[in-house]
């Protein structure tokens, strides 16, 4: 019987046929490694919107834990919390009330109004990068635009010095890979993730001390003030929140921008339609997000018994939600495999849903709209370069291009 097998390299190279196969043959199934997998839009949405499904893996029942799940690490974390030690995990993996408190401290930095104030900065950075890229005629979209722009934007928001941007790439890649479920990671990748966390900790602690001495109008200063004020952040919470914002604030957008360019490069008609119709600026980014699905899957642990997709599930069960498959479910999206830039409504799950809906959604939409609109306006056509094969990083959760060579024709 068909089942989710993360060892299959096709999940990195071309997962779409696998998503289709699972939706048709085994939309709800228990894998040989002991966790449940859901690939239909309706089932993924049902889990995401239900408070009985937690993003906190500490709720996993050891007797129902996936093969390779680190019960020792879980037990150590549980014991430290019970003994009164601060919880060092980012709010992405925590439940209310901690999740509510921590998310609330940073949410004001990602409101549509606040994000709109970044428009000028995004446009200037985009134009600067495109000036260089388009002059070459053929360029790597990831290295030339998709990576440096989101890094510059999130660093501007946080208040990270521009001269430090180059230091983040290897560390951030290790953390992005480390977001894959730990039971899917070999020991050397867990070690690389933990080493990257240590390096980020040293770096950010230095920035925190700077902000205490000389506060500025940036998000890091606001977090430090919250650390020292009534709505107090522990040292561990301050650090984990800063790292989460930096990594999650650009890794997913890198994948959206590069994946969006690839989808358009393969569809000249879609390019032409968007060039001629500025109204598509409103709907096209979400359609490209649906097709690209920068977050391919996410996990939830049930804190109460549930029935999902007709399957009874016990509390303590771990569930894997294949968002990349849900976003191309033909029962929800007409002509699901095609680029329909005018698609509306677009009920994709690219930003998640419910309690953990992506905090940075307004910022990601802004960056996608600016970059892709400017690329379209400054070219008459762009396509995958002759002889070039787009390559992907070996990530399950944050799947994205490693390299994408495109050739452009000037407008």
Report the sheet-strand fraction.
Answer: 5-15%
User: Sheet bearing the most strands, described?
Assistant: 5 strands, mixed
Order of strands across the widest beta sheet? 1-2-8-5-3
Provide the succession of SSEs: HHEEHEHHHHEHHHHHHHHEEEEHHEEEE
The helix count comes to: 17
Low-confidence stretches: none
Distance between the termini: 51 Å
Instruction: Find the structural class using helix and strand composition.
Output: alpha+beta
Outline, from the CA principal axes? globular
Strand tally = 12
- What helical percentage do the residues reach? 40-55%
Mean pLDDT: 90
Radius of gyration: 21 Å
Task: Explain the overall architecture.
The chain starts with 9 loop residues before the first helix and ends with a strand. Strand 1 (28-30) and strand 2 (36-38) form a beta hairpin. It is α+β, with helices and mostly antiparallel strands. 44% of the residues are buried. A five-stranded mixed β-sheet has the order 1-2-8-5-3, with helices on one face. A three-stranded antiparallel β-sheet has the order 4-12-9. The protein has helices spanning 10-13, 16-25, 41-48, 71-82, 98-107, 112-116, 119-136, 141-146, 148-158, 168-178, 187-213, 219-228, 235-265, 268-276, 284-292, 323-326, 361-377; strands at 28-30, 36-38, 53-54, 138-140, 298-302, 306-308, 311-313, 318-321, 379-384, 391-392, 401-403, 405-410.
